[in-house]
Design goal:
Strands 3-2-1-4-5-6 form a six-stranded parallel beta sheet, with helices on both faces. The protein has seven helices and six strands. The two termini are about 20 Å apart. It has about 200 residues and is α/β, with parallel strands linked by helices.
């Protein structure tokens, strides 16, 4: 990374940005969570890159075609734009070692909690992972953050509340902050960035 590399905020998608529905196998199942657009806009206003990093093994399992994933992300971008917000980067892992679709059947380096998506974004967008944050509703997101050198933040939307109660106590990795939702996480991150310069 060059001296000009920037910190970013990495966001999980399902359960963090949109309602956790299992697999989003139809466009009608995508629902932006309350406060998400405001959270993203707060980061946009401070020129902090917002990067979505998402496992989408539903592609590998043959539950939906790539075209649907594109449509879902167009809908997400459109709904954010209506509130004056935007995503700066979008990175997807379509792989699974037991995939039905052969093209996606592999042990990859990008499926969270592996760090490939964050590392790819860091190279392509000139980001400083050690000064960045990763927000998600699963412990796999927190593990990904720590392995990449980023600060882990847990939201209690999606699987978050259950993960905190039932998964978290057995884990060595702890979130730096636990927020009710993405808006709470964004506000904390902005305060933390201001404090650390």
């Amino acid at each position: 990374m060059s001296d000009k590399s920037r910190p970013a905020v990495f966001l999980d998608r399902d359960g963090t940005i949109n309602e956790q529905m299992g697999y989003i196998n139809h466009l009608s199942r995508f629902h932006l969570l309350p406060g998400v657009a405001e959270a993203v806009r707060l980061l946009n206003d401070r020129q902090v890159p917002v990067v979505v990093v998402t496992n989408q093994s539903g592609l590998a399992r043959g539950y939906f075609p790539p075209e649907l994933l594109d449509e879902v992300h167009e809908k997400m971008a459109g709904q954010l734009a209506q509130k004056g917000a935007h995503i700066d980067g979008l990175y997807i892992c379509p792989h699974h070692p037991e995939a039905k679709e052969e093209q996606y059947r592999q042990e990859c380096c990008c499926r969270k909690p592996k760090t490939g998506l964050l590392e790819q974004a860091a190279v392509e967008m000139n980001l400083d992972l050690k000064r960045s944050f990763m927000v998600g509703d699963r412990w796999s997101d927190l593990k990904c953050a720590v392995r990449a050198g980023a600060t882990p933040v847990l939201v209690l939307t999606g699987y978050g509340r259950g993960d905190l109660q039932y998964i978290g106590p057995q884990q060595e990795i702890r979130p730096a902050y636990v927020a009710d939702d993405l808006l709470g996480a964004a506000r904390w991150i902005i305060r933390r960035m201001a404090a650390t310069g």
